[in-house]
Amino acid sequence: MDAQLKRGLLDVCVLAAIKNEDSYGYKIIKDMKPYLEMSESTLYTILKRLETASMLTVRTAEHDGRLRKYYHITAAGHRRIEEFKTEWKEVISIYQFVTKGDGEYA
Amino acid sequence: MRKQEFLDALKSGLTGLPQEDIGERLTFYGEMIDDRMEEGLSEEDAVAAIGPVEQVINEIVAETPLTKLVKERIKPKRRLRAWEIVMLVIGFPLWFPLTVAALLLVVVFYLVLWVLVICLWAVETVLWAAALFGLVAAVLYTLRGYVCRVRRRAARCGADADRAFGLPVCGLHGGKRRNGEACKEDRARNQKNVCRKGENKMKKGAVITAVVLIVLGLSLFIGGLAAGGSFQPIEVQEKTYTVTEPSSLRSKCPSTRISMEFMRSVSSRGFKPV
Predict the structure, then answer these.
(1) pTM of the predicted model, to two decimals?
(2) pLDDT band at B40, cuts 50/70/90?
(3) What was the ipTM of the complex prediction?
(4) What band does B267 get if pLDDT is binned at 50, 70 and 90?
(5) Which residue in the set B28, B39, B251 is minimally distant from A25, CB to CB?
(6) Which of B22, B77, B178, B252 has its CA 20 to 30 A from that of B98?
(7) Which residues of A touch B35 (CB under 8 A)?
(8) How would DSSP label each residue in chain B?
(9) Which chain A residues touch B49 with a CB distance below 8 Å?
């Protein structure tokens, strides 16, 4: 995928991964794998950025005798997802414009 | 590569970043490796799945804003050794008074400069006062001449004009005062002559003095202003340099490849701030 496009989608994807239940680092990557490939360092940066923007909170919990960080979405995070859904309606109409009259070649 | 090897390599590769950032990264990657191992991967495979250490280091460094790296570089590592602390304590009676003396010298020097300025202003003020006094004196003298003229007229008319206009001009009169018997005509004549001569001299003298004093006063006032102006402390302007983040650069110009070597050299080796 185009790097620019991908960059805009990563934040929302991570938020979606923790939307329904708290998740941890590796699980987020796994959940996103069918859709977007993400490296650990990229994930780290995104998680840090979302935390600064108060779209998620972090808590450390014990798991199997070691500590693990769990990420929890906030109201701001939910709002961001809603924003994304609205924005993409426009994207869809642009897509339709781009593919207009492509019938023969599609 | 085993987990600890990976983490150690990562730690050494990230020197140049702030300590807390390094700590956070190490926990994060350690967690990732542990999670993969939980899934069933072997330690080697878990580490391998993250990717080569070099690449990870490059990515991290590339994403750290340049300002953070520079700040960390500039911050001196203050680790005072034991003997240094002892030396500082022992030498206290020596370096402390010296430092205080040096500071006081600076303060005194600054004060001396200000005293100079104050002196200039004081001189200038005094001259203004002198000019004003000269003006007042000129006015009074001229007035006295006028009064003399009135006195003459009054004397001609025979009236005693010593108290003309209520001004006590007795003391200022150049001529001797004739009292008692001198005939009014003589008195009037004498007064006339003395007044006339005195009048002209006084007028000329007063005007010249007033003009000279005013000119002096003005020139010194302007000089004082100029001197005072040049004593203003030089204002140090703080310039802020904005540093563009390499990651933002990358998104704007995806085809630009910022040399990884450069990024690494910034973080680990010497960096001379521009």
Answers:
(1) 0.47
(2) confident
(3) 0.84
(4) low
(5) B28
(6) B77
(7) 24-27, 68
(8) --HHHHHHHHHHHTBTB-HHHHHHHHHHHHHHHHHHHHHT--HHHHHHHH--HHHHHHHHHHHS-HHHHHHHHHS------HHHHHHHHHTHHHHHHHHHHHHHHHHHHHHHHHHHHHHHHHHHHHHHHHHHHHHHHHHHHHHHHHHHHHHHHHHHTT---TTGGG---TTT-SSPPP-TTS-HHHHHHHHHHHHHHHHHHHHHHHHHHHHHHHHHHHHHHHHHHHHHHHTSPPPPPPPPPP---HHHHHHH-TT----HHHHHHHHHS-----
(9) none
